Amino acid sequence: MRIEVARSAGFCFGVKRAVQLAFEAARTTGGPVYTLGPIIHNPEVVAELARRGVRAVGDPRRIKNGAVIIRSHGVHPRVLASLQRRGLAIIDATCPFVTKAQRAAAALRDEGRQVVIVGEPHHPEVVALKGYAGRNSLICDRRPVRVKSRIGVLSQTTVSQEDFIGALLSFGRQAADIHIFNTICNATQIRQQETMDLAQRSDLMIVVGGRNSANTSRLAELCRTVGKPTRSVETEQELRPAWFAGVRKVGVAAGASTPASTVERVVRRIRGLTTGKTKAESRKRGGKHSVRGN
């Protein structure tokens, strides 16, 4: 059986930067260190940081002193101002692509437009973006929304081009004046396209990443749209031998918050689960069979 891993599997630039800043803070900061929410949607990384003294906190009011890491998703400007007023040390790990989207939202708001954000309403990146977009901003999550005649449109950095274009078409039937910022991260587009291409030439897709990771869930969804069986796992321990029955080629993709080490363990585990089986089948047929991976 052949195993092929998507070239873009593993940390994206923004996530890698945030994780490096968090581990650096754990090593160099004398006092307590916190992150507003998990630094990334990956329980293994969050657990390792906790062992090194970096605690994830959901409510910023619980942070009384020390350093606060703003994760790659960014944070609502009101929350940021509150942390600064209290004299806490701020380590800004907001992804540069997210910062670009925040500036675009503020620019559209300052033009006097109703800002429409294409994305998931409860995703932390979108919650932060809405803070920059203004009170009359809207969030469009694949369902039709009524907009004003003069709008500005941008997106959560991890939505698909298809969803963004679909939303734009619906707005075009309502608004007469539209200013568009395409704030989808290039790395997201590349990862999604590579994953779909890999799914099309594979018998089974394994998508690796945290269950709370929006971009990981989207990869699994895209694999299923091309009609291929798809399994989502956080770690190699969730793999099951029965999944690989009759499979000649397995594709492995991973979300932007999945460490390369986790992907490597998943690949090793797949080989371990399938090598013995394929050799036994080969002996039964009286032939030879090899297991390859790349």
Structural notes for this entry:
The protein is an alpha/beta fold and 294 residues long. The chain folds into three domains: 2-9 and 187-293, 3-Layer(aba) Sandwich (Cobalt-precorrin-4 Transmethylase, domain 1), CATH 3.40.1010; 13-94, Rossmann fold, CATH 3.40.50; 97-184, 4-hydroxy-3-methylbut-2-enyl diphosphate reductase, catalytic domain (Cobalt-precorrin-4 Transmethylase, domain 1). Helix content is 42%, strand content 19%. It is built from nine helices and 13 strands. It has helices spanning 13-28, 43-51, 77-85, 96-110, 124-133, 161-172, 186-200, 214-225, 260-285; strands at residues 2-5, 33-36, 54-57, 67-70, 89-92, 114-118, 138-140, 150-155, 177-180, 204-208, 230-233, 249-254, 292-293. Strands 11-10-12-1-13 form a five-stranded parallel β-sheet, sandwiched between helices. A four-stranded parallel β-sheet has the order 3-2-4-5. Strand 4, helix 3 and strand 5 (89-92) form a beta-alpha-beta unit. Helix 4 (96-110) packs parallel to helix 5 and helix 7 (186-200) runs parallel beside helix 8 (214-225). It is flat. It starts with a strand and ends with a strand. The model is unreliable at 278-294 (pLDDT under 50).
Write the layout of secondary structure elements.
Layout: E1 2-5, H1 13-28, E2 33-36, H2 43-51, E3 54-57, E4 67-70, H3 77-85, E5 89-92, H4 96-110, E6 114-118, H5 124-133, E7 138-140, E8 150-155, H6 161-172, E9 177-180, H7 186-200, E10 204-208, H8 214-225, E11 230-233, E12 249-254, H9 260-285, E13 292-293
Parallel strand pairs: 1-12, 1-13, 2-3, 2-4, 4-5, 6-7, 6-8, 8-9, 10-11, 10-12
Helix pairs in contact: 4-5, 7-8
